[in-house]
Amino acid sequence: MPFDLTKDIDTEVMEINFGPHHPSTHGVFRFVAKLDGEVVVDIEPYIGYLHSGIEKIAETRRYLQFLPLVNRLDYTASLTYELCLCLALEKMMEIEVPERAQYIRIMLTELQRIATHLIFFGTTGLEAGAYTPFLYAFREREVILRLIEMTCGSRMTTNYFRVGGCKWDLPGGFEDLCRKFIKKFPKRLDEYDWLLSGNEIFRDRTIGVGRLDADLAINLGVSGPTLRGSGVRFDIRKAEPYSGYDRFDFDVPYGLNGDVYDRFMVRVKEMRQSLRIIEQALDGMPGGDHIAKVPKVLKPPPGELYYRNEGTRGEIGFYIVSDGSTMPYRLKIRGPSFSNLMSLRHMMVGHSIPDIVLIFGSIDICVGEVDR
Amino acid sequence: MGVMNNRFTRPNIITVPYDKFVNWARRNSLWWLLFGLRCCAIEQMAAGGPHYDVDRFGFFFRATPRQADLMLISGTVTYKMAPAIKRLYEQMAEPKYVVAMGSCAISGGPFVSSYSVVKGVDLVLPVDVYIPGCPPRPEALYYGLMKVQEKIKGETIVVGKQ
Amino acid sequence: MLKPGELYLNRRFDRDDLLRKIESSLIGIDYAIQENFGEVFLVADKEKLYETLSILKEKLGFNYLKSLTAADYVDHLEIIYCLYSFSNAYSLTVKSILDADSPEVQSVFSLWHGADWHEREAFDLFGIKFIGHPNLKKLVLWDGFDEHPLRKSFVLELSGEEGGDS
After folding, report:
1. C55: containing domain
2. Do A219 and C5 touch (CB under 8 A)?
């Protein structure tokens, strides 16, 4: 600038606290932003407001007793955590899951992935200043929750997957309702998508904002749609297929710039790919058992294992140390939002206050996984 | 409020219609605080969504405690978060009501044996209505909110008769 | 690393190839190899742990830290690093044994920035000191709570007899 107004003025950096209770922090998360005028210079996040000591409780519970607690970590997509724990235990105990159970598991997990991305879509609209996407998203979500409630017995914190398969088989009216949903949803998704991504104000606010470089993202341990928005097209469902995902035909969307718009578009496109998977699962659903023959008391052999799968926000990992008894000796849960959150300070520096809210929403964290 | 406070010791021709009118106004426009901790927060958002529309009862969410009447504790309360919750409660203006939603807020829930969870939010705040469930359905949340409305219906300006 | 936009598809690795590369790179450093459920574990010496990890990062391409955690085996502590290589698709877990009374280890923040909060959490819940970490403060526990809950010496009050018998 040829004429700098602040040249002779003594300015200081102002610290503002975005407290644990804040309408746009997606739960209890606190960070202190150091601002020079309106521009962010640095931020320091504080977490732990929802720390419930799940890892310590795991050492005093049998594996089947621990399964409902794992639902409460990422409460919007609880089946992905259950799937990871069940797959880890099945690998340790060398149990083979029947094909029908694998298809049911994949179908329900993808339904919850769509439900979670709908919440992201609605709250991104709220943060950009638009109220209607929130209402549309929650209306569509009700159909998915009805499908899941019909099968699992509960809308959100299901307790449905077991080691070896699923607790019970799909109910009678599930297929009709699911096919109706698959037929209606794509056109509606195009309409809602165009509401935000075709809007000039939204594009101006999100394109070029909050860039994350691919090398820095890998160094930080970022995963999921946040990493795919920066160009690294890595999806554990394709790279290390588990539970029968290699039999399904779907694409992995990615972005090249690593800004808020790319991360938003990756999630919207992932919803369409999930619909493809659900349709293939319904068409090719085999008959058979819904659960394998599993011993009544689960006693994995002594040893350790790190098992990971693709959750809605990134890589979910379980590190289980078993000493041969019915309770784990040590169980460590790697939540994707914990690692994704470390990239926040690198993305926010240099942006102004209205951008803070959008950048934070684009990582899409769930505080239950951050604090555990 | 104001001129009517601490004046009457028995119900009479002034207090009865006054109570009826003020309680009707208060219970049909309860503004709740947009505050969610864990899974119950998603059910709270769904209750405010289009399918279970809560605006038809006059409820509306406000982001700041200064403008809210009702605080829904929806989720696990930890020792780190408890001072913040207490401060939020103190920032709300009278008359204010607290609803404990979900088993984590009622008594610690599935995490009761943990080292960092407060065993029920009523150790921190005075609670009016408890809504059991994990998480409670939006219909269960409505039942609890109707109970709060009934509680407000029974309030009176007469001294010593609460 | 693949180019931006290229899909990582069916990335498997040959176990013998990984073991050969480890043997040829870690010359002069003592280590032991274990295998559990088909995965490779490398037990390294605590003194040369940082050197081992930096050789693994530079020569074998382990550029992604999946998880950093610890486990308490009453007479000693074990620190566990789960590593992944994007270019070669190797997956390896490195373990090391620490002293139980005053556990200290060199921080790997300079190798992987993603170790930042993982190390702070291990410091908080186990009491392990990471030398060289830029900001070693409490992360998840509140001020005034100075115990280390994930140690076996800290017993939960209500753990009871829920899972005691089979």
Report:
1. 15-115
2. no
Q: Give the tens place of pLDDT for each residue, C103-157.
A: 888 899 999 998 999 999 999 899 889 988 888 888 888 888 888 888 888 888 7
Strands A330-334 and A315-322: antiparallel
- Mutation for testing the C interface, residue in A95, A316, A330, A371 having most C CBs under 10 Å: A330
**3-class DSSP state of A325:** coil
Interchain pair A139, B115: CB under 8 A: no
In a domain, C10, yes or no: no
Buried residues in A29-41 as b, exposed as e (16+ CB within 10 A): bbbebebeeeebe
Residue-wise pLDDT for C94-104, tens only, equals: 999 988 888 88
Rounded distance, CA A254 to CA C87, Å? 18
Residue from C128, C67, C158, C155 nearest A372 by CA: C67
| List of chain B residues whose C-beta atoms are within 8 Å of the C-beta of residue C145 | 79, 116
Q: Is A69 on the interface with B (CB under 8 A)?
A: yes
Percent of chain A's residues with pLDDT above 90: 44
- A243 closest CA partner among A303, A161, A348, A130: A161
Neighbours of B66 (CB within 10 A): 9
Q: Over range A197-208, report the average pLDDT.
A: 89
Closest Cα of chain A to C135: distance in Å? 11
Chain B touched by A138 (CB under 8 Å): yes
CATH superfamily of A13-371: Cytochrome-c3 Hydrogenase, chain B (1.10.645.10)
Reported as a single tens digit per residue, the pLDDT across A235-265 is 999 988 988 898 999 999 998 888 899 999 9
Look at residue C9 and tell me if it is in a domain: no
Q: What is the mean pLDDT of residues C32-58?
A: 87
Q: Does B114 touch chain C (CB under 8 A)?
A: yes
Q: How far is A332 from chain C (nearest CA, A)?
A: 7
How is residue C98 written in tokens?
Answer: 């620490």
